[in-house]
């Protein structure tokens, strides 16, 4: 027979163990419930108070965290959706300020379920806003291209034609900036046909303008002009925002400058400058810079200082205008040395600007010709080495330029390569009798032709 004390001890210990086990299970259940309640309450209510809380946050990281929690709210009421739209705008601004481009890209992917709850027009606005935010972060060109490609695939799957067309236009622009011209041209050619069929004039202006810039980059001037004309035609049918009109004028000026029509180009650059200046657009300084370039190219370099010191010009004083002023001074003094100094000191503003760089070679040739003409003016015969020393350039370079100027009839002369000299002739005087003789022969020819016609009629 078992000892009663032993049994009592057994039951007491068993009960205690059971109670401990039950207590442990209850504790784990409470922990689980508390974790679930914590997870369910990790998001914040989509209210104006939550937005205000984010604005009052001490650090950007804290504000970003709050806004993410607002977006996690599962509510889909009209008020909640409106608050979430505000949260997205503020969040994209904060991520841009913190240069978190990859987080902006991820945000765009995370918002795709949210886009199904709001109108397509608002979706397009949000998507373009986030892409613009990424564009403002330096060194993100490759990320922007991949982001646009992802969005194009998504818009195709979701059949969002309006948004897809605009993202494709942005993608073509990015490809052009990245010098991937063939891909950009293929994308634009298919897009432009689709947009013309839909008759979306505002987008058509953008695409035609982009196509003009692309053909200009490929040095296909006729097609660039044709695309610009198409953009102007579409723009005349609708109201065009001032910024877009300024872009059209800027492109017109660039194409006219390429054709050496600098006076017309100056007027277009001036129109573009006025439009951008009113909008405080950063492109205003480039329009002003190209205006000064036109002044220099038509040998009105003395006017450059006046334009810079004007009320409008003083707002944009900086390296861009200083570079053009240095070139203008070199041109006024006909000094190649000053010109080369300006190129060296303002390399980023002159040689790395594709528009200015296109005209630098012709400007250099003009300065070189003016300098050579000034140096050889007092001589009838001069050694080429002496001219090279005066102009501080290599002898073979000077000799090549002089022979080119003689062939182009810039002056009358010949190169005596045996003696290493340049012989300059006086300007030959044209005897008027030769011109009169040519006119007489021409008139006699006309008389003979008319007599032949009359005799043919009589014989008929």
Task: Kindly report how far apart the N and C termini lie.
Answer: 161 Å
How are the strands ordered across the major sheet? 1-3-2
Shape: elongated
What share of residues are in beta strands?
under 5%
Main sheet record:
3 strands, antiparallel
Low-confidence stretches: 1-41
Say how many strands there are.
Answer: 3
GO biological process, one term: protein catabolic process
Keywords: Proteasome
Domain PCI: 261-429
Family: Belongs to the proteasome subunit S9 family.
Summarize the structure.
Residues 261-429 form the PCI domain. By secondary structure, this protein is mainly alpha-helical.
Characterization of this structure:
The chain is mainly α and 460 residues long. It has helices at 4-40, 48-55, 60-71, 78-97, 101-110, 112-115, 120-135, 141-158, 161-177, 181-198, 201-217, 221-236, 242-258, 262-279, 284-297, 303-308, 311-314, 319-332, 336-345, 347-350, 354-376, 384-391, 395-407, 432-459, and strands at residues 381-383, 413-416, 421-424. The chain is elongated, with a radius of gyration of 38 Å.
């Amino acid at each position: 027979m078992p000892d009663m004390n032993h049994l009592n001890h057994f039951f007491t210990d068993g009960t205690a163990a059971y109670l401990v086990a039950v207590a442990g299970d209850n504790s784990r259940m409470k922990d689980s419930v508390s974790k679930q309640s914590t997870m369910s309450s990790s998001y914040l209510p989509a209210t104006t108070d939550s937005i205000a809380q984010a604005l009052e946050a001490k650090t950007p990281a804290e504000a970003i965290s709050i806004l993410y929690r607002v977006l996690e709210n599962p509510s889909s009421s009209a008020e909640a959706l409106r608050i979430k739209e505000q949260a997205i705008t503020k969040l994209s601004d904060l991520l841009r300020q913190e240069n978190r481009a990859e987080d902006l890209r991820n945000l765009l992917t995370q918002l795709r379920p949210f886009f199904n709850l709001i109108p397509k027009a608002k979706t397009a606005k949000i998507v373009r806003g986030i892409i613009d935010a990424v564009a403002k972060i330096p060194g993100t060109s490759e990320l922007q291209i991949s982001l646009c490609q992802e969005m194009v695939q998504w818009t195709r799957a979701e059949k969002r034609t309006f948004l897809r067309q605009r993202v494709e236009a942005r993608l073509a622009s990015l490809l052009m900036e990245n010098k991937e011209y063939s891909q950009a041209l293929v994308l634009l050619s298919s897009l432009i046909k689709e947009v013309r069929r839909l008759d979306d004039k505002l987008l058509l202006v953008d695409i035609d303008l982009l196509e003009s810039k692309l053909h200009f980059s490929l040095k296909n001037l006729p097609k660039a002009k044709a695309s610009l004309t198409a953009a102007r035609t579409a723009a005349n049918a609708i109201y065009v925002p001032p910024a877009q009109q300024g872009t059209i004028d800027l492109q017109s000026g660039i194409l006219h400058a390429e054709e050496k029509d600098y006076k017309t180009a100056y007027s277009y650059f001036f129109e573009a400058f006025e439009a951008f200046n009113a909008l405080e657009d950063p492109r205003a300084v480039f329009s002003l810079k190209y205006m000064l370039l036109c002044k220099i190219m038509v040998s009105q370099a003395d006017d450059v200082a006046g334009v810079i010191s004007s009320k409008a010009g003083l707002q944009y004083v900086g390296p861009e205008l200083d570079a053009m002023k240095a070139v203008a001074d070199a041109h006024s003094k006909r000094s190649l040395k000053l010109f080369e100094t300006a190129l060296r000191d303002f390399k980023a503003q002159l040689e790395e600007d594709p528009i200015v760089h296109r005209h630098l070679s012709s400007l250099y040739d003009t300065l070189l010709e003016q300098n050579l003409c000034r140096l050889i003016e007092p001589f009838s015969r001069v050694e080429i080495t002496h001219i090279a020393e005066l102009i501080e350039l290599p002898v073979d370079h000077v000799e090549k330029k002089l022979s080119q100027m003689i062939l182009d009839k810039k002056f009358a002369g010949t190169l005596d390569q045996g003696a290493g000299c340049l012989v300059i002739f006086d300007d030959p005087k044209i005897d008027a009798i030769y011109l009169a003789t040519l006119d007489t022969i021409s008139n006699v020819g006309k008389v003979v032709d008319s007599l032949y016609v009359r005799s043919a009629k009589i014989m008929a």
